[in-house]
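[retry 2/3] N-acetyltransferase domain-containing protein: previous attempt timed out, resubmitting with same input.
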Amino acid sequence: MNNDDVLATFDTQMRRNARPDSPGARVDRTETTTRQTGGESGWNGVLWSALDAESADAAIAEQVEHFAGLGLEFEWKLYSHDLPHDLPERLLAAGFTAEPQEAVMVAEAGELSTAVAPPEGITLREVTDEAGVDLMAIVHDQAFDTDGSRIRRQLLEQLTEAPDTVVAVVAMAGDVPVSSARSEFIPGTDFAGLWGGGTVEAWRGRGIYRALIAYRARIALERGYRYLQVDASDQSAPILARLGFAQLSTTTPYVYQPKS
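[retry 2/3] N-acetyltransferase domain-containing protein: success.
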């Protein structure tokens, strides 16, 4: 895998030419930016930009005006290879707040082992209905200590209106959900995105996360996707590297909250 070539393909397919990530979202493109407006229940933000020192501040102000005019918090999803190099400082000066950095990691699906069984006592259950989504929400709240209500609504919408674009799975210890994850499949691209992988603290370090990667890699291969892509936390990145993922870049969410 040529990392530079794969990163360029990723930027084109998944960022510049991004499609809406939910049925109710809208994507707007210009020569210098791609943004999604997902409304109050969806994801709002800038996915791609091609700026320079002369155009950056005006582009930032334009996005702030758009989303603030709708009363929406939004995210500028900045990548470490984006230009200009001082874009992070410009975003901070415009009132954005930086959230934790993640590693952009990619692997060829055909190079990963897909025959990884979950540890003893764990079963993997594919999510197809509201009851399954509720189990995933329980895991999300416990694993990340954050409110998963937006993700719950989005996943329910996808499963109802566009079920071919998402596969979700929850790991069960008997009747107790202990880990979960999902894959998103964008038609016409080479990438399957792996999202939301999280395990309740008491169940970490037992191989559940690895089993969820293998489960989703197998499905991606069956559907004809060449690459798996993850925005990995510091906790997940070492595991993914051992499995064969390469780090191509980093990404940092810069969040803007409209003034009340």
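[retry 2/3] N-acetyltransferase domain-containing protein: The first strand starts at residue 26 and ends at 29.
[retry 2/3] clearing retry counter.
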